[in-house]
Amino acid sequence: MINMARSISEEELHNRILDFVGYVLTAARALYKEPQAYGPMRLVDTLTKAVQLLEDAGVRDESLSDTLAVIRDNRWQVTANPAAFGEALDEAISRLVQVTLQDAE
């Protein structure tokens, strides 16, 4: 279920979008010199920031937040235990598929 209720002003939303774009650009700039394992972590961070930005803009989907919580809880395992991080990504993907199938019904 999607809830729509903006929690920030238009000016603040504009600033947050600029911050998000800046984050994505600087992450991309740094990524090619970082260890390969940082790529998935950066993508997850970007996804988390995008969802937060949408929530601040008034678009909130609780099932999506729950799906991302699985990854947030396991994100630092990307270097210490890559297999566990992969399993967390698989679980998040599976949850998202379930949400998508429920929405299609």
From TrEMBL:
UniProt superkingdom: Bacteria
Pfam families membership: DUF6092 (PF19585)
InterPro entries registered for this protein in UniProt: DUF6092
Protein name per its UniProtKB record: DUF6092 family protein
Species of origin: Paenibacillus aestuarii
